[in-house]
């Protein structure tokens, strides 16, 4: 694979629908525009540091299991099982709900259905995607690439609209002193940068070998940082910081300010399509993780049944869809369903992300002579910083978020109890991601 191909793939993985939704949450936690731009720049730096750590793990311990394989190799089968459970019950299903709410928020800009419009559209999206995959219909790679192009083009259009065409927002009154929300802000920023851990595995297949990994990751994240900074600058110029913080669909509001109702409708369609596409990909990968869990743990064998005629793990798809729907129903009663889904997912995500960082130290100590085609620079400072940031974000996602975060943690705790039950009745699980 050529470097430019890997860069394009990496940008496509990371550039999700989040940049069209999370900036409003970030704007609500900073005091001025300068702080807004600084936290997005800091997010890019942190993402690059983490990508370096993943590049070492992926090149030294290549395996299709990804995070599961790193955790199992470093900490054993029980913790790896807990990760597999969390991926089914919290991480993937929460991600599906997050993307479904982005779809609902933007589609509601076109066809509002009342106060619960976003949740209704989100639920319909989950049902539709699950049904399509249950039947066995697959989206081809070409269609996915075209839809990713629509997403990138839409973001560039929003940037141009906000910087060049929309009237500049009136200066906001000076913000009153408030408690620092840096931890909460960084949770949302790094959520938007999420996906570079998958990009590390793609980079390992470069023609230039492991020497190309840092270059590809740096250029990919540099491109994303530029896009994200320009997008936030466009939002800020067109809406102002209070306008950003109060918006449920910042991109649509910018396009509406620049081109009127037709502009808002155009970008709403593009973002809704992008969110639906990302949700579909998440449903596909999540169901296959659940299928692998059921295949390898006899007590969960119902999840591990593959339906040959349709070519899909139907039971796993339905189970995943039900969990996502329950989260969306809860979000329908919350003030912000998107925020609830994020709260539910992120503490668990940061916990296992932290453990992956710790696994780098464990594996270096346990296997000092193992071949490492790529070594993270400035060891141990770089992975220490990565772990420290993840620990801080784990704490922030618990301290600053709502009751949804506690529910996510409780669901993982149920997995721990389930693990004790399963160990007396089945061999240790061996789950591939």
TrEMBL record:
Q: Where in the cell is it found?
A: Membrane
GO cellular component assignments: membrane
Q: How is this protein situated with respect to the membrane?
A: Multi-pass membrane protein
Keyword Membrane in the entry? The reply is yes
> Which InterPro entries does the record match to this protein?
AA/rel_permease1, AminoAcid_Transporter
Which GO molecular-function terms appear in the entry? L-amino acid transmembrane transporter activity
What the entry lists under PANTHER family is as follows: AMINO ACID TRANSPORTER, SOBREMESA, ISOFORM B
The protein, known as = Amino acid permease
What is the organism of origin for this protein? Sphingomonas lenta
